[in-house]
Fold:
Amino acid sequence: MSVEKLTVREALRNGIREEMERDESVFLMGQDEELGGTFEVTTGLYEEYGRDRIRDTPISETAQIGAGVGSAATGLRPVVNVSFADFLAICYEPLMNQAAKMRYMFGGEVAVPLTIRAVEGAGLNAAAQHSSTVHSMVVNLPGVKAVAPGTPAGSKGLMKSAIRADDPVVVFENKTIYERTGDVPEDVDVPLGEGRVVHPGADVTVVATQRLLGESIRIAERRDDVAIEVIDPQTLSPLDTETILDSVEKTGRLVVADESPLAAGFQAEVVSRVIETGFGSLDAPPQRVGIPDTPIPFSPPLEDEVVPDQGDVEAAIERTLA
Structure:
């Protein structure tokens, strides 16, 4: 089995390209897709597939998702780039009330194989309206799946699985990790709903996503005084609770590191599931790492203050050990 060294950006592009090659019903739609789209993830695909398979759209996220729902319901497999995830708020109606509910409302007779690409995360001084991490909002929608890759292999595998799925899937891409590199097997397979242990340990479990996954792995590799088990959930909804519970049963401690806001965030969902089912395994209160209750500031020093980093993850680990 051949293995490539790819960036997250290249891995996402390769996953999309392979699915377009495999299935003629797959097409791309979004702002500036003919030029490579947001952050140049789809660069070169227009030259390969032309306007029949790569469609530029007006700057209207509602129209993009609405057209995506319609084309998916009638037999195509659209991959819609809404650019910045902040603007999912504009198209929440077609996402929540149409894409998410059509299969249920029509007795399973209608599939909506819609993939939505949404770029999220802070760290580039892009100000409040282009820096949010909003995947917790989508995790709250029955009928929609959500993935948040943190590695190149996960990025390619999850993109391919999202495109092949017969339900709507939102692929949340963290804008600060596009240049993160890693080994990607040629036939990488990442099923939706399966997490994985990326660093084994016996003293504390750290469930980490996207950028904070890399930070957590670096801590685990550096620390020789504590054995940190790092879990990449990969799919946020449906969540692989079993893998997390098995780890907490072994370590007795839990830290959840995710860049979404703490209030009613993904971190709270993970903690709740562990407490409901595995409370007896805990030797210390679970700890959450995330964004405080504030929009992302434009000022670089203020942004650095509110965005969680490696130091915040390590401090949370120390709190569980104390």
Remarks:
- The chain has two domains: 3-185, 196-321.
- The chain is about 35% helix and 20% strand.
- The first strand starts at residue 3 and ends at 7.
